[in-house]
Amino acid sequence: MPSPSPGRFQFSEILFSVPGLLVLVCLLAAAALLAPESADPALRHYPCQALDTDSRHSPYLLPYRQGTQHWLNQANCSGHGHSRFWNHGYDFKMDIGTPVLAARSGAVMDANDGCTDGDRACTNLIIIRHADGSVALYSHLTKGGIDVVKGQAILAGQVIGRSGDTGNTGELPHLHFSVHPCGALPGLGREGVCPSQPVNFRNTAPNPHGLIAAHFYRAE
Ligand SMILES: [Zn+2]
Q1: What is the distance in A from the centroid of ligand 1 to the CA of 12?
Q2: Domains in the chain, start-ordered, CATH in brackets?
Q3: pTM of the prediction?
Q4: Of 10, 55, 96, 186, which sits most exposed with the smallest number of CB within 10 A?
Q5: Vertex 35, ends 33 and 39: CA angle to 5°?
Q6: Residues 179-191: pLDDT tens digits?
Q7: Contact, 104 vs 130, CB < 8 A?
Q8: Bridge partners for 162 per DSSP
Q9: Of the candidates 109, 134, 108, which has an alpha carbon nearest to the alpha carbon of residue 196?
Q10: pLDDT tens across 10-29, in order?
Q11: Averaged pLDDT of the chain
Q12: Taking 70 as the threshold, does the pLDDT of residue 59 lie above it?
């Protein structure tokens, strides 16, 4: 190999100088930031997002009847089944057959019925698209518990179905509720590119950071 001409910096000299190291660290950090997300949704990174908004002005109502309360089993970033893509979803413990109400107005984007309670591989669900393009997912509904049809306009507070125990409920009948910036959710024939986003609710105790797991929340 020809030796480098004198007077010129060698790469190794730059690399091992203090400013060179700083530049290298910056380059590596930039590369990490610019690295494309994994194509596999299961391998993507889903940060836990902090929510801090006045819940009295939230666009969302609790998805059950006024005057009733439900135990919140999973909430923002509480782990377990609500990791990664689903990390900002909520699980409200509910007896099978409990009326489920629309948390926000919109139109039915998807509705799936026909799964049997206790079937862990099949989930009855409703997806409602809101005016801003975001969607709300209501899942684990009971068989025959879908009271809406695709395309139907829905008002906040309207009964849309009944809760159940279909799909992966962990043997705990509950309503899964999550909001997503768009409707591409995994397992619905679309690639999962719209991870859950944190939301709070205006018709219950103040919850600026969202609801907290292992608490009861009453719909006022
Ligand atoms: Zn859930």
Answers
A1: 53
A2: 8-36 (no CATH), 52-218 (2.70.70.10)
A3: 0.81
A4: 10
A5: 130
A6: 999 999 988 878 8
A7: yes
A8: 99
A9: 134
A10: 444 544 555 555 554 444 44
A11: 86
A12: yes
Going from the Cα of 56 to the center of ligand 1, the distance in angstroms, rounded, reads 24
Expressed in angstroms and rounded, the spacing between residue 98 Cα and the centre of ligand 1 is: 16
Alpha helices, H only, 35-140: none
Give the strand pairing for 106-112 and 124-129.
antiparallel
214 CA to centre of ligand 1 in angstroms = 14
Amino acid in position 203: N
**pLDDT band at residue 143 using 50, 70 and 90 as cut-offs:** very high
Interval between CA 87 and ligand 1 midpoint (Å):
9
CA of 81 to the centre of ligand 1 (A): 7
Distance between Cα 2 and ligand 1 center (Å): 64
Integer CA distances (angstroms), 134 to 82, 107, 206, in order: 19, 11, 23
Q: Residue 63: CB partners within 8 Å, gap ≥ 6? A: 92, 100, 101, 102, 103, 138, 175, 177
